[in-house]
Design goal:
Structural class: mainly alpha
Radius of gyration: 19 Å
Order of helices and strands: HHHHHHHHH
Largest sheet: none
Distance between the termini: 51 Å
């Protein structure tokens, strides 16, 4: 279970623009920034890409309305996750009881959870918002028995999916490059940092 941080400055400005309904730009920015996590959650609870795209299409309409009333005190991701949970939950079957034994921290392990519990767990993983469902807390213990950050990151990395272009918003005739998954961006930053450190080390040795 996580506690969502407050808005940072960039999110504050985006939410303020959404509340002021400053054209389509702010919502496009919001949607494309969250598309990877949205796709990871929705695709994780439905059976096909086509079904996931259908859910996202209907959610996009609801979110465009709800985003205009987002508050300025809560993290943006948590507000999107809560809206997604409400949008999907009643359309999913309640499913069976939770398993009694530990589950592997993989997409296959998450898939064992009943659909509504799986939705709540994935929303918590990707949007830092915990649904008011005690079964979701039980799912933590099944998938993250270590109850630490590393255990959570293992599940996050395993269940993260790159969204298809069809899941993004873009001007007609100008499809953008799909955003790199957060994990890939982190790897790129680490490589860049390592390269910079090597250059500085060589310079320092040459001046010694």
């Amino acid at each position: 279970m996580t506690t969502a941080p407050p808005l940072d400055l960039a999110e504050f400005r985006l939410v303020r623009a959404l509340r002021a309904r400053e054209g389509e730009g702010p919502f496009t920015q919001l949607w494309n920034a969250q598309a990877g996590h949205l796709w990871s959650v929705v695709r994780g609870v439905v059976r096909s890409d086509a079904e996931a795209l259908g859910w996202l299409a209907s959610f996009r309409i609801d979110l465009a309305e709800e985003a205009a009333s987002f508050n300025l005190e809560e993290a943006l991701g948590a507000q999107v996750g809560r809206a997604l949970y409400r949008h999907l939950r009643d359309g999913l079957p309640p499913g069976s009881q939770l398993p009694a034994s530990r589950l592997p921290p993989t997409p296959e392990g998450v898939a064992v959870l009943p659909p509504r519990v799986r939705l709540g767990y994935l929303v918590d993983i990707f949007f830092d918002w915990t649904p008011p469902d005690p079964a979701v807390r039980t799912a933590y213990r099944l998938l993250e028995p270590a109850a630490d950050t590393n255990a959570r990151l293992v599940v996050y990395a395993a269940c993260l999916r790159s969204p298809p272009v069809e899941a993004l918003i873009f001007p007609p005739g100008l499809p953008p490059r799909p955003p790199a998954p957060p994990a890939k961006r982190r790897i790129s930053l680490l490589i860049a940092a390592a390269g910079g450190a090597l250059i500085l080390a060589v310079l320092a040795w040459s001046l010694h």
